[in-house]
Each structure stands twice: as structure tokens, then as C-alpha cells.
Specification:
Blueprint (H helix, E strand, L loop, with lengths): L1 E4 L2 E7 L6 E7 L4 E3 L9 H5 L5 E3 L9 H8 L2 E5 L12 E4 L4 E2 L3 E5 L8 E5 L4 E4 L3 E2 L8 E2 L8 H15 L6 E4 L9 H9 L7
Parallel strand pairs: 4-5, 5-6, 6-7, 11-14
Antiparallel strand pairs: 1-2, 2-3, 3-4, 8-9, 9-10, 10-11, 12-13
Helix pairs in contact: 3-4
């Protein structure tokens, strides 16, 4: 567990299904988990640092270890309404809509393009923006990149849709970019996202 910026804790753990390490975050003062997977050392750390109360998902696929946190700490799990069809096995998940203010003062923004429930979470209190699956960072110290083409139905169209969404998001006020897949960009996130999105190529 590493406090990468004031109030933002980051860790990685092996995802049992996709067999790669993925990133999760805890907003300690807000008692909010983002895309949580159980740390390698288990859940005891959270009891010592203020137990979590809410889980926010950036898309439906990031439920990860939410059930374990719900069992241990009684957290409420939140997913955007467009992804609620995923939860048919008795999972207790509360829907939200894009634009809603969520626990911790977090605001949900639509990304779409790669899937209807692709969500960005703006965290003004922590000067951060969390992304889901559209953009990744494969290596520590590496650049932002798209997920592989074979994970997109129409790669060219999907990438343009993601760039358009990221251009809008880069207008928000934040400095830390929190990724579900890869190390976060601390302090430089807004510029990284703006450069990655590139200029608007639509006619004036």
C-alpha cells in the first residue's frame, strides 16, 4: 500500500481471472474504494486506516473483490446504471447515473466508446481523475496507451470515441490520473491525458 498523493492510497494485486496485476485505490478520508481487488496481505490494513464504506466502479468488470469488502466491512457498491445487467448473481450493487454526485464528492462522467458503462470518476477533493479500461499503462514509467485492438469491436471508431471523451475530461481540474490497469500518473495526469487525446480533428 502506497500513499501516492495526500489521501490517495494505491496498490496492485494479481487478478485471478485475467492473471495480470491490476490497480486499485482507497480514498481514506472519504472511506471510498475505487475498483478494489484484495491486496496480497488481505483486508486487515483497512481496519487500521479507517474502514471503507463505499466502493465505486469505473465499469461493471471491476467488481473484483467487492464482495469480500462487503462481507468484511459492509460497504455499499456503486456501478453506473448501464452496467447493472452484469450483476445477476445476487451481488448487492446500487446504480448511479452519469453526472451524479457520489460518496466522497466524486462525480461520474460518461466515457463510453469501448462499452456503454465505461466511466470516469472525478475526485475534486483529491485532485484526481480515475479511468476504467480505455487507457492503460503497461510498464512503470511508461506512456499512456490504448488497450489492444482485439479488445475493441471497432478499434478505429472506438479509439476516436475514447479520444473525444478524454479531450472533454482533460478540461476538468485534476493533476493525478488513476488507472485501473497500470501505475497512476501523479502530478502530471491532466497533461498526460490531454496529450494522449490529441487535438480535436473535427471541422470548425
Amino acid at each position: 500500500m502506497e500513499e501516492i498523493a495526500p489521501g490517495i492510497w494505491h496498490w496492485t494485486a494479481l487478478h485471478p481471472r485475467i492473471e495480470i496485476r491490476v490497480s486499485s485505490y482507497y480514498l481514506a478520508a472519504e472511506r471510498v474504494l475505487i475498483d478494489p481487488i484484495a491486496p496480497d496481505d488481505g483486508l486487515d490494513w483497512f481496519a487500521e486506516h479507517g474502514p471503507p464504506e463505499h466502493v465505486l466502479l469505473t465499469n461493471r468488470h471491476h467488481y473484483r473483490s467487492s464482495a469480500e469488502f462487503a462481507e468484511r466491512y459492509g460497504v455499499t457498491v456503486h456501478c453506473v446504471r448501464e452496467g447493472m445487467h452484469e450483476f445477476t448473481g445476487g451481488e448487492r450493487v446500487e446504480p448511479f447515473d452519469f453526472g451524479d454526485a457520489l460518496p466522497g464528492g466524486v462525480v461520474a462522467y460518461a466515457v463510453g466508446a469501448i462499452c456503454p458503462d465505461e466511466t470516469a470518476l472525478h475526485i475534486p477533493a483529491r485532485d484526481a481523475l480515475a479511468l476504467a479500461d480505455g487507457a492503460v499503462r503497461w510498464e512503470a514509467g511508461g506512456s499512456l496507451a490504448f488497450v489492444p485492438d482485439d479488445l475493441m469491436d471497432e478499434p478505429k471508431k472506438t479509439k476516436e470515441g475514447l479520444r473525444e471523451a478524454y479531450r472533454r475530461l482533460a478540461e476538468l481540474d485534476f493533476h493525478h490520473l488513476l488507472l485501473a490497469h497500470g501505475e497512476p500518473f501523479v502530478g502530471t495526469g491532466r497533461g498526460v491525458l490531454r496529450d494522449f487525446a490529441g487535438p480535436d480533428a473535427s471541422p470548425a
